[in-house]
Amino acid sequence: MKLDFEHIPAGHCENGVISSLLKYHGLNLSEAMIFGIGSGYFFAYMPFVKLNGIPIASFRPVPGMIFAKAAKRLGIKMKKQTFRKQPKRAMAELDKVLEKKLPVGIQGGVYHLSYFPPAYRFHFNAHNMTVYGKEDNTYFISDPVMEYATTLTAEELKKVRFAKGPLSPNGKMYYPINIPEEIDLKSAIYKGIKQTADWMLTIPVPLFGVKGIRYLSKRVRKWPEKLGPKRAAAYLAQMVRMLEEIGTGGAGFRFIYAAFLQEVAEVMQDDRYNELSKEMTKIGDKWRNFSSQAAQTCKGRSSDPDGYNTVANLMLEIADDEERFFIELKKLIK
Amino acid sequence: MEKDKVPQDEGITEGITREVQYAINKKGKYEKVLSKGWEPKNIVNDLAWKDIQEDIDFADEKIKSGKASPIMHYMAKNLMNITLLADYVELPKWKVKKHLKPKGFKKLKQEQLENYAKVFGISVDELLNFKP
Fold it and tell me: Are strands A150-153 and A173-178 parallel, antiparallel or unpaired?
């Protein structure tokens, strides 16, 4: 049994899955719209949370949050289930929902994804994909970050759903059970924008929002001296990976946000959002420049502080830009 | 980023997939564009794998000098640390630490060896006969 489900490649897995699931149920909202409504834009530097032994700089809130907030603001009811240490039940439950002709979103670990580019197969557990059918021992998979739909065997899928380590999915699966006839899109957009602006401008801890970018900029300058050339390069490389590696749509979600603002301009019939979209594109281009320069600095694993100072300066410039941007954006939703 | 500037540098996803990039078309509207890759991404990904290879080499040196068991090689090869491996084999960390030493490894029973081999996706023979 294979459901009539359209595979739509997306920039980011979480939004891509939600957008496709809703589309199956007749609600057309783009990935960018879900991302904006769910307040997906963020910056956080978390020296106390480490990935591969390196502090995380994240350009989005914690996994699952975008999805939860978007659903709430749109009035959509989702059924969510996890199955701690119960892989058999998790697979049986998935089959049962598929039998009802409902595609199912699942969380999984990319390390066990046989169809994934090998170079991307790290122990990262907050990946999302849709299961849209089953024939014999094969499940049909729509993974938004893949160009085409794929498949997994039952054994593989079980491993993916029960990957271990940080953010382990515990068989998590979800699907919409109630979508309201009328959706108040404008109100959902306002709420999404307001929260993002508040997060970026007013969290009173220096690790988040534009303050976080400035704080990290200071740290980056010290990396070559404090960590030595090899570790410093690894730290900087991980930042570039958070910005660009699979699932951000480019420039740490900044371009997806610019796309969202263009859609908002249409919904609100207000050209000022188009102008701000252009500003956001410039910010995204600066982050791309950051990645490009940072990669060059990492490449030779040189401890020359110049490379680190260059990217740190760029970050200060971007922090100022993002601050100005969100002050302007906030004015529009008053 | 403009659509015609979306980089198409072959690299880590070659022959498997292309990734979505958001870019502006000629009318100034955003659309999803498929990209084959970007050189800065290739560079940082390559660096991550070089570090993993160094971990494997380090493990192999220790095994050669009799200070570690083959489990250390496969742990590094599977991008794991002791915490993650302990999670996968469902054992406390102190036990895994013991098994990482040649002495502790020799005492492993058949079913424990099978448990490790299964997690690493290899046979028990491969695990027992590993030579760096």
Answer: unpaired
pTM of the predicted structure, to 2 decimals: 0.94
Asked whether residue A7 is domain-assigned, the answer is: no
Residue A189's domain comprises 185-332
Chain A CB within 8 Å of residue B64 CB? no
Tell me the domains of chain B and their CATH numbers. Answer: 3-37 (no CATH), 48-128 (1.10.260)
When pLDDT is cut at 50, 70 and 90, the band that residue B122 belongs to is: very high
Whether residue A271 sits in one domain with residue A250: yes
Residue A163 contacts B, CB cutoff 8 Å: no
- ipTM of the shown complex: 0.93
The confidence band for A303, taking pLDDT boundaries of 50, 70 and 90, is: low
A120–B contact, CB cutoff 8 A: yes
The answer on pLDDT for A197 being more than 80 is yes
As given in the structure block, the two tokens for residue A158 are 């079980």
- The alpha carbon of residue B114 is apart from the nearest alpha carbon of chain A, in Å, by 17
Q: What share of chain A is helix, strand, coil (3-state, %, to 5)?
A: 55, 15, 30
Rounded to 10 degrees, the C-alpha dihedral A16/A17/A19/A24 comes to: 140
Name the residue facing A284 among B1, B12, B88 (closest C-beta).
B1
